[in-house]
Amino acid sequence: MLKFDRQGLIPAIVQDAETREVLMLAYMNEESLRRTVESGDTWFWSRSRQEFWHKGDTSGNFQHVTQLRIDCDGDTVLVEVHPDGPACHTGATTCFFQSYEEAKADQAEDEPTADVSVIEELAQVLAQRHAELPEGSYTASVPQGNRPHRKEGGRGGGGNDHRRQERRPRRDRLGSRRPLVPLPRPPRGHRRPPPRHLGRASPTQKVSRPGTDRAAVSYLLSLFGRGNSQRRWLAG
Known about the structure:
Elements: E1 10-16, E2 22-28, H1 30-39, E3 43-46, E4 51-54, E5 63-70, E6 77-83, H2 100-110, H3 116-132, H4 138-141, H5 161-175, H6 214-224, H7 228-235
């Protein structure tokens, strides 16, 4: 039983029936395999063009099938053919005409390398801009060794300094603890009442009250709004 992958494809190895040379590797689906069996010519499925591919329609190098073989796992097809011409689009008889060493050498040559002359030229241009300081040059406006200054009004620039200065007085006013309306100053010689967190004195406890006049007591009562019991305690 054939085992197709998730895309419904199975690899097909094409081999010359006489020379036993491996010619190419392509992919088939169920429909292209059926066409190969019925027509006697190789049919494949092009993964790049997403269409059926009849080998030889363009080049005239048809491949006439002599036998189909399936490997032990059922996931690869071996197609033995009599080719009418080269199998490779480059004109070579087989697509496997390049050795591994040659392929690695070609890959190393194709890898891009940094051009030292371009880097040196760029460094010279930057140095010239900083030396001459031409008008309108962004490179000349960037200080050496520092981050570039932003334009006025931009993020991190000096365009918003006046806004920060305007907000400071308002923040100071809101954060101040001084009352908006000044309280009247207490008369001379008065003493502050005991703190509230000390609680009230028990009836049997003797409390020593400092000597004070009635005017100071009236002022304190009007200032702190004591209750009737506290009024009697202060006035007693």
